[in-house]
Amino acid sequence: MTPMAPRSASRFTEEWLLSAISLVSEVIVQHGPQYGPWLDRLEHELGELKKNDPVARARRHLAAAGRLGCRTQE
Amino acid sequence: MSTIEEALQGSRHQRRAPAAVRSRRLTNRDGVWYFVRRRPPKFATVEPRINIRISTGIRVAHDRSAVKASRIAREIDLDLEAGWQFAAGAGTRKALLDVEEARRRANTLHLDYKPAEIAAQESAEQIIRRLDVLAVGARRHDGATVAAVLGGVPLPQIMLSGLVGEFEVAKKTTLARFSKNQRRKWRNGKLRAIARLTEIIGDKAIDRISRDDALLFMDHWAERVVDGQVVAETANRNLTHITGMLTAVARRHRLQLEPVFTGLRLEGEGSRPRPPFSAWWIVNRLLAPGRLDAMNAEERAALLVMINTGARPSEIINLRAAHIHLESNIPHIQVRPDERVLKTEFSWRDIPLVGISLEAMRQFPDGFPRYRDNGDAFSAAVNKFLEEHGLRESERHTAYSLRHGFKDRLRETAATDELKDELMGHDTKKPKYGDGHGLHLKLKIIEKIALAPGMRVDRPDRVRQEVTDL
User: ipTM higher than 0.90?
Assistant: First the structure.
């Protein structure tokens, strides 16, 4: 697993969440579905993060408008 | 070393783990605490080292009692086990550990044990902390470690039918001081409360009791109160039994229970205090010649001791010879917890004996074996006698009313409130300092209020009216 956030981290980052989802998925496959709530929470947090990230939102808007390539070239 | 491991190394030094005994796997090597362990035979194929020695990094001079070093040693041990299990292909072994073991393992890793559905709802910081801990080494492959960190062991399910038993375990140190009869009475009240609750909502797991269940239970009691079958205090006492048990058992098992019974106490009439026997009634009825002759000698003596000591019936019938001082300068009894608990710590007191109470006690210098630890039988026998011989001042008077009568007479003296409380053995809710008032002072007060056959006392208006009505 790639290094996660330092111990003092109190906010999720996309990188950390992806690593954590990978860890928990491994745990569920190996040890059972009782750890499902962890995957639910991490997927939810990742969804929230993506939903609220202004850059991601801006990209979505541009993609929807078909202008992403044009703007990027500029 | 990865960021996570660095963080963990830091945490080893910064976080406080629960106090524990020194690890048996520590040794002092050149002034440094070392973890040492011999390879378990079953892992010979996966562990080349026969004797494993790992430095904890803690100097003995800095940690003479090995508190920090023990904490690190337990962590190293846990990681070694996890690594061996994984390497031996036993990584998927079922985490057959109980909650206590899961807690112990979680604590070793500086975490609290919480079941998955609760742990996964914690703050971002807590989530990050748990998963970072699990990401170290081969921990993720060890079912027991995963269960401890991520909450894979369900908390025990305690049914209402088992609640009293669980509560007894939670209160075992308190119960150890109870007499057999005290324990029986203590238990019965709680069993009755639970029986009533299960009659209404069924035998449920305690963490499945809902607010609706609680409302249903209290609706049942409210109806009984409205119908006049019970007073509100009876219902509230049942509620107290139940909430007390739920709180204690939840604490013991670290269960998070919703406070479903909060705010449901019924308002209404509390228990009606027993009326006091008036001095007139005691002198002219109870102590009138021949009125108690048909009474069993032990019952009569205990009743007479009550009159001028104001002691509780249970305190008198449980007196032992060692606490009855008839030859002392001031004859007195000592209320002490003899193989039973006293009602409160304030019950512990010495009471001088005078007049009829002294004479009665002289007849039973060893106490009252017939009724020892059987206060219910004593009260039932005495109350029956009083009833059958027309010696109750009203229908609501019982033997206990003698204690209330004593208190009433005390009120008329110049004794300080503190001395009155001490004589009665009342819980003042204040810290108890010193040895209390001496026997001389107590004797002076008791002599003023002691009653004796034939003495002149005013008839209270209430009794005067009833006698006129006859």
Answer: no
Of B10, B116, B124, the CB nearest to A10: B124
Judged by DSSP in three states, B34 sits in strand
CA distance, residue B111 to nearest chain A CA (Å): 13
Of A8, A30, A41, which has the smallest distance from its Cβ to B141's Cβ? A30
The model's pLDDT over B93-133, given as tens digits with 9 standing for 90+, comes to 343 457 778 888 898 899 999 989 999 999 999 999 999 99
Provide the residue range defining the domain that includes B343.
279-469
Which among B4, B91, B121 is the nearest to A4, CB-wise? B4
B145 and B171 inside one domain: no
Q: Which of B101, B119, B150 is a domain's end point? A: B150
> What is the value of pTM for the model shown?
0.54
Question: In this structure, what token pair is assigned to residue B34?
Answer: 């070392």
- Residue B322 within a domain: yes
State the Cα–Cα distance between residues B7 and B17, nearest whole angstrom: 16
CA-wise closest residue to B279 among B462, B403, B454, B458: B458
In tens, the pLDDT along B281-332 reads: 999 999 999 999 999 999 999 999 999 999 999 999 999 999 999 999 999 9
DSSP-assigned beta bridge partners for residue B325: B332
The answer to whether residues B146 and B165 belong to one domain is no
Whether residues B298 and B373 share a domain: the answer is yes
Number of structural domains chain B divides into: 3
pLDDT at residue B237 tops 70: yes
- Mutation site, B92, B129, B131, interface A, largest A CB count within 10 A: B131
Residues B144 and B169 in one domain: no
Per the CB < 8 Å rule, is A4 touching B121?
A: no
Cα of A11 to nearest chain B Cα, Å: 6
Output the CA–CA distances (angstroms, integers) from residue A17 to A3, A50, A59, B25, B123, in the order listed: 11, 11, 21, 37, 14
